[in-house]
Structure formats: C-alpha cells, structure tokens
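[[Encoded backbone]]
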Amino acid sequence: MKNLPYRLCCLLSSCLLLSLSPAAAQQVTVTGVVTDSLGAAPLSGVTVHIKGSTTGTGTDAAGKYSLPAPANAVLVFSYVGYRTKEVPVNGKSVLNVSLSSSTSQLQQLVVVGYGTQKARDVSAAITSISTKDFNKGIVTNPVQQIQGKVAGLTITAPGGDPNASPIIRLRGQASLTGGQTPLVVVDGVPLDDPAQVANIPPGDIASYDVLKDASATAIYGSRGANGVIIINTKKGMAGNPVVTYSGYIGIDRVAKHWDMLDAAAWKDAARSIGTPESTIETYDHDADVDWQKAIEQTAFTNNHTLSVSGGTEHFTYHGSVNYINQEGAIINTGRNAVGLNFSANQKALDDRLNIQIGIISTQTNRKYADYNIFTYIASTPPVYPVYNKDGSYFAFQDFEQANAVEHQMRQLNTGKERLTIMTGTIDYDLIPSLKIGATGSLSYFNNQTGFFQPSYPIENNFNNGNQYTEDRNSKKGNLHINYNQTWGKSNFAATLVHEYNDFIYDNFKASGQQFLAEINQNNSLENGNPAYNEINSYKEEYELASFLGRVTYNYNEKYYIEASFRRDGSSKFGSHNRWGNFPSVSAAWRISGESFMENVSWVSDLKIKAGYGVTGNQDAIDAYRSQQLLGSVGRYYDQANQRYPLAYAPSQNPNEDLKWEEKHGMNVGLDFSLFNNRLGGDINVFHDKTKNLLYDYTVPVPPYYVNTILANVGDLTNKGIEIALNGDIVKGQHFTWSANGQITFIKTTVDNLSGTYAGNELTTDDIPGGTAAGRGLSDNPITYLKVGYSPYVFFLPHFVGVDDDGNQLFDDGKGGQVTQGDLDQSMYRYTDPAAKFNYGFGSTLTYDQWGLNFFLRGVSGQKIFDDTRMLISNINRLPGNNVIGEALTNGIKDAQVASDLWLEKASYLRMDNITLSYTFSHISALQSLQLYVSANNLFVITPYKGLDPEIRITGDDLNHTDVTNQAYIDANYGSDGYYPKTRSFSFGVNVSFK
C-alpha cells in the first residue's frame, strides 16, 4: 500500500501522455460502402461497430455507412450469412469493405440439438432457413414461414381457419396411431405439445434448423422419430440500442366458391325432375340467397412487433412485444394475441462464466367456427332467406338444414390460451477446451374454452353450455459437459448430458342444459336441469430421464465422423421396456479438400455424407396405456344400504411388454457449392423403417378384460430422394437475381400389420381408414392401411357410366358392367392416392431499392376423393337442398355411390406468396426503412374440381382432435366441415431507428 501514491502518479502520467498522443486524440468520420465478395452488390443492414465499444451503425440500402471513430480504432463488420471482418482505421476517412460471401452458408452455425456446428462440418441431413428466406404476407402460424422451403417437409393448411393448426409431416408417415408431428424445440426447449408453436410470435423468430434424418434426430431419442424442427428466436448484439418496428395490415377473402344454383335455376331444376308446383311453392320463401357468401366477410388483420436490442461485449439483450388481431373470413371467427419475448446474455469472470435467460409469454383469444354451418349451407335452398322482414332470423329445419348465419352469430364458442416458457442456462469454462453447465426450463400452458348454444324452437333443441380448462405444464433440466480441442489438423468435440423431464397434464369440464335464463350463457351452469349436469376431470403425470453423449472428430476439415448415443427411461411403459437405447453414427468426406481437386476451380465445396440412426416415438401413447385401468360402468343396487353406488370394471388391458415405436433410418447425401459459391445445394437419399408399430388389436376376451389391447406389431417403410438448389443468377451493381427450389420424392409402404402378444396371434391384412359421407355403399370404409400399399390406399368400384335410365354402371372385373344393386366388394380395386413428388420454387429480384420476391409450391400425382362434390351434386335431394350445376348434366339419377368417379386428380401449383418492396436509401433519423405489399394464395392451377386440393393429409392434426375425414378424402360435408381457404393482400413496413 505504501507504493500506492507512486502507482497513481504513474497511471495519471500515462493517461496524460496518451491524451496528448495525436493518434489517440484524433477523431475521423469514416465512410464507405460494404459489398459482397465480388464487390458488385451492396449489402444493406450490415452492422458496423468500433471494436471494444458500444458505438456502431448500419449500412443503408446502398451499402453505405458513416461512423465517427478514433483514428487508431478497429471497425468490425458483421452480417448474417457472411464472415465477420475486422478492419483497422489507421487514420483513413474512407473504408470500402467487401465481405466474404457464404451463399452456401458454410460458415453459418447450425443448431444440431444440445449444441451447434458449422454448416460446413455437418454430416447429417439438416436444413437451415433464416429470416431473409421466410415466406411473406399474412402468417397465421409460425411454421408457415418455411412452408415449401425444406425438402421432405410437408406443411398443409387445410382451409383458411385462423384457429386451425397446420399439418406437419417430415419424410412421410411414421406411425399408425401415434402422433406424427415433428418435435418442435424453441431455444433449446422442446414444446410439450407441437400445437403450442402457434403461440410463438412469428416476428420473434430468427431461423429454423430442420433435423431430418435419424443420425441427426437420434440425439432426441424417444422423441425424435418424426424429425425435429428447432426454432431460434432473435437475440441481442453488442452495440448501441436498436429499436425496430415491423407491422402489416391485410385483408382476407374466400378464394373459391361452389357454383351453386340461384333461386331461378333451383326452381327450374325442381320442375325438371317432376317436383309438383305445390311443393315448390311450399319451399319458396321469395328469396335468392347464396348461403356460402351469407356466412362470409371481408376479414381484416393487423400485426405489429416492436423490439429493442443492444448491449456491450459482456452483456446483450433483446426484448419485443407483438400484437396480432386477425378476423376470420367466416363471420364471428378470428383471434387476437399479445406476446412478450425477452432474452439476455451476461458474461463474467473474464468471460469464462456465461449466463443466459429467456422468457416467452403469450396470450391468445380465439373465436371458433361452428363447423356444422358448412353442412347447413350445402343443404339450404337459395329460396330460404337469412332474415325475416322484421330483421329477426328466419327459422327452419328441413333435412340437415338450419339457419347457418343465426347459429354462427348467436353461438358462444371461444377460447383463451396462455403459454409461458422460462429458460435459464449457465456455462463455465473450466479450461479453454472444457465447459460445464446446466439448463433449466419451466413451461406453463393453459387453455380455457367456453361454449353456449341457445335454444332454436323450430329445431326442437335444448340450450346447452359448458366450460373447459386444461393445463399442460412441465419442468425440464439438464447438466451438460462440452469439450472441444484442436491438435494440429485434428479437431475433437464431445458432449455429455444428463436430462430430466417431468410432465403434468390435467383438465376439467362442467356442462349443463335447459337453462331458464339464456342471458347468462355458460356463466351459471348450476342453473340448468340437474338431471343433465355433468362434471368430468382427468389428470396424468409421466417422467422421462435421459443420458446422452455425442462425439465428433474431423481431420483437416476433410474427414468427419460423428457418433451419438441416448438412453431414455419413460414411466409410460411397462417395467420390461422402460428404457430404450438410441444410437447413431454419421460420416462425411470433403472431396473438394483433396489435392486432386486443387485445379478444379469451379468447385467451391463438395462433400459426401452418410448416416444411420435409431429414434423412438414415446409420444404415440398416453401416460398409462401399459397399465390396467378401471372405469365406471353404470350403477348397481346395494340391497343392504338401499342405494345405487357406481359399479367399476376394467376398461383397459395391461401390457407390460408395451414399448415405443422405433424408426431405423439411413441417409446418404451430397452437399455442393459451385462457381465461387454462386450455385449450391444438396441431394439426400433416405430409407427409414418404423418398427414395433402401435395399434389397438382385437383379442379374445378371456383372460382379457376388454376385447382390444394396445400392442407393438407391424412395420412400415419410407424411402425417397430430396434435392435442394439455390443460386445467384445475376449479381450486378444495380440488379440481382437469386433463386432457390426443392423437390422431394417419397414412397411410403405398409410392410406388416401382424405379430404376437403373450402367445396370442395379432394379425390383420388391412385396417379400415376413412369413410365417405354419401349414400349407397359409402357407409363402408373407402380407404385402408393395406399391407404392400401406401397408407390410406383407396378401395373403390370403377365407374364406367350410366344407362338409359340414369343408373350408375360399374366394372364387374370380368369384362362386364353391373348396376348399383349387383355391386359387391369383389369388384372393387385398389388405387394409390399418394403424391409422386412435391416441390417449391422461389426467386428474389432486386433493382437498386426495389425488390420482388415470390414463391411457388406444388404437389404432383396425388388423388383426392371429392366427397363434398358427390353429396351436393345429388339432384335426387331436391327440393330439400341446393345443388351444383353439374348435377343437372351428369346424367346420374339414382343415389350416389362412393366410386372412383369422385376420385379426382389433385396435383396443383400454387402461387403461395409474392411481395414487392421498396427500401429507402437514406433517411437521417432512421437506420433503415422498407415498405412492401404482399399477396398470399394468389392463384392455384389444378384439375381438382373441389374448392381446394390442399386437404388434411392424415386423420389427425396438431391439436390432436378426432378428425373423421381421413387422408385424401375431401369430407368437407358433415360435422368436420370445411373452413374455406382464403386469398389475402397486405401492406407492411419494416423500420429500424438509430
């Protein structure tokens, strides 16, 4: 301490000398232009900051920047998709910088599950999509941002309902009864239910990493059989605070209508089939209503996201608030949501300690459609009015008809969802190559729905209502060790993790009917008829414990090998199979790194890769399916106590041998980048086999308690080819043109549906699938899971025409023809409806500040059974319903039969979205400003005669609802209905403030 004054004097002297130094004192305003590696195209939005400080700026649309800086400073240039570059100022006032292009994104970090890798080092089948490649326009669910962008990934939005979840399938069907949606991981935390992805604000998402093959997804073990979609939200960067706003307003209209008869044509058609004039007059209420349009509206949407981010070299943060209000194109439907997102990263102890925290919280309010109204509008004659002359609703109930407008407007059908995900990670560098840490997360999801249907006297119904609430919560945590070391040309990395997950689900429902005061709706359920009051509740809990490890090695960035192993233990399964093992291995060879490729200048990068892995599907079953369960089976008379207590009996057979389905997958791929990274892409060939398929099989009752048991039997195979390409076609100073596309060929085959359990043979050659809703023989299943065929293969008679009396004729399989009365199933034939391939193509063109982006998506070779068209074209139902004009000319006069007459070709090419934008070159108060107009579903080219060829592709959706219209059956008529697909237009703005 005695030398402290001397040290202070020395320090002050040094500071004085530095302050007098010309280099330290001098300030210069550095200006310049940032371009790509060829120096041709300016880069907009490049972050430029002074190394070691928070002072920075960004380039404008012309790539220009201006930044005051010390003469001896170092400027850091960073941009997504390009290598970060540091440039000394050295007293210069002009610095033009070119950044190394990574069109092939070889330097980009890819999230591979429990860690990251450089894209150039990945040996598995993984596709990454960043913000600049997202689909534009009105996005109702975040995953629609990458719809059609990833080879092998099919995202289907079957209709325009803003409250419906899209169907997601990765590399075909992987289960018979279990969920088939990929695991969705947000910032390292798997969602408890994939449907919760709808509650993630799209504006907060920075990128997606899609893990496709088993060697990549095996790290997720018993949850990775359907693939993995990793969502990475936006994070803060060091520099001055940056405030950004993005928002749009848009309108939606129904894209297509059935060509239904108007009032005059309806009456003429009724007369043409001999309907008495008195009957026509009975139905005629002097109206001319298109009931399709009566339930529609022009729907308005507005979406706003405000965010702020920034920080220092040791602390960064990002926070945002999002609001969306979206009306549905059907009256009295829609949703609105508010979302908050915050993340922060703090470094300490000489940057050896790293602490990350994050929270995502959203609340969504929904107004649902009553899907029965779509049955009503197909069955209501145009001569029925919507309103009486006094403005009240016109009441009726004929056949399946009711006033669709009244039902949708008077019915209460709402939902409220709350999702909160809190995460925290702490990592500590023991030594430069060894890091230890822990991650924990809490997820809370609450869903509340309310329903009330008033009485409709003419329909002779009772009013009824209910309230329902469910909670899906979880606690997740892991301890992890990461090791990374380089020796000369060798690099070795290892990850070890112990993970624990606890899942709790519960629900509660109360309902009643025959309320005296309808004004209370469902808010006083106890005031209904006590005889009809019902209370139901349920709760389950299961645990998943895991041990996993991964090692990677590469030599000279030419030879790669990676292996992983995960061991999962789940409380869902019996004691015999509680633990499962999920190994994987992959390897890659960078051919372009070999000496014999040195003179092949047009090859920028060339890598061949191969992998094998085993994954599971524990989400296919509920928490207690391996156990014997008891349930109430009515009441019995207790003579001693003179009462009627509940009687209980077994409701489920136990199966101690129950285990998860397993998918064994192989993948061989080729990654390439050519012509100085102007053209890039990848090709993957895969072969996956799912074993131990779960299905409820019929068994002899003794010694079992019920006649079905869930058992592991059967196999199915997915094999295919994926091709993805991207390229910069033109890279000029003023004009650029880039394009990307993908095509996927997939063939799924049911190999086996039989096996044994406890010495009993469980065998079947086919499993019934969907049915048609029509008449005749259509009550029988028309699709099957059939050994040797694709899933949901059609089994239908072949229609050959009509006879002189208007009776349908069918091929008898022997060269002859039969009518409906002589038709039997021996004359039916199998037809594969599966698509031969699906594809997407996008392109971006820029000219100075103008930009044009469009994306086309399509499917080739699929067939759809147009059940709705079969039903509403049935002219024999006049005058009780409306019909489409085709019914008057197809010559069919007998009851419709489910035949291949209605199995239509349904290939399509859809203009998914197109966006025209203008980026302002320089506004003094702003860092950047962009305006754009966008259109979604602008057109679709298809031979399909229904409303839209994009329908549900399996019998379940992300919400796990019981959907009766099975794959490839357009069963829009009936209780499932069809919320028509919409066409939307929007105007938006993206702005960043300095």
Notes: Residues 927 and 994 are 5 Å apart (CA to CA).
